[in-house]
Design brief:
5-stranded antiparallel sheet, mainly beta, single chain
């Protein structure tokens, strides 16, 4: 007896289902966690300013800190990080994101504290995403950010030696 072989073919169709969502983007106003000038800001050795980066739309805080050559220079309050929310507590940390311009040829280190947490020591060998914190920041409260910088004795004066990015990251 001979068996007959049958070939079956299936037709398949791709089905696409579209489920539409509509997103309305609105401004909530200023964020609850803000950075403000610290008590040591004198616009000579230490200055703090803010601007909006037109390329990416972020609000930036620019801190210019000067150190005396050959000796550690300490600042007890460069900036304050404040919680403007009247009901919610946030966890805040400082995160080193890397060098924006320059290098550590003339800067041995920059140390940052977040209140009593730290220091976060930033030097040529510091890895991106190193951080200090988190620190709990209750409603209507602030935490100081002290700093120390050590500039080498042979550093030139009057120009930026290194520019680093340190982000304030908060979660609530």
């Amino acid at each position: 007896m001979q068996l007959k072989r049958t070939t079956l073919s299936f037709a398949t169709a791709a089905i696409t289902l579209t489920n539409i969502t509509e997103w309305h983007v609105q401004s909530a106003g200023t964020p609850p966690i803000v950075k403000v000038k610290g008590a040591d800001v004198d616009d000579s050795l230490l200055s703090v300013s803010t601007y909006t980066n037109t390329q990416d739309g972020t609000n930036r805080t620019v801190i210019t800190i000067k150190g005396y050559t050959g000796d550690p220079t300490n600042y007890s309050e460069v900036i304050k990080i404040c919680n403007k929310d009247t009901t919610k507590t946030y966890s805040v940390k400082l995160v080193y994101k890397g060098i924006l311009r320059g290098d550590f040829t003339y800067v041995q280190y920059l140390k940052l504290w977040l209140g009593s947490a730290g220091p976060l020591t930033i030097e040529s060998s510091t890895s991106k995403d190193e951080s200090i914190g988190p620190v709990s920041l209750g409603p209507n409260s602030c935490v100081s950010v002290p700093a120390e910088v050590l500039v080498t004795p042979d550093a030139p004066t009057g120009s930026d030696l290194v520019i680093v990015q340190v982000d304030v990251v908060s979660t609530g």
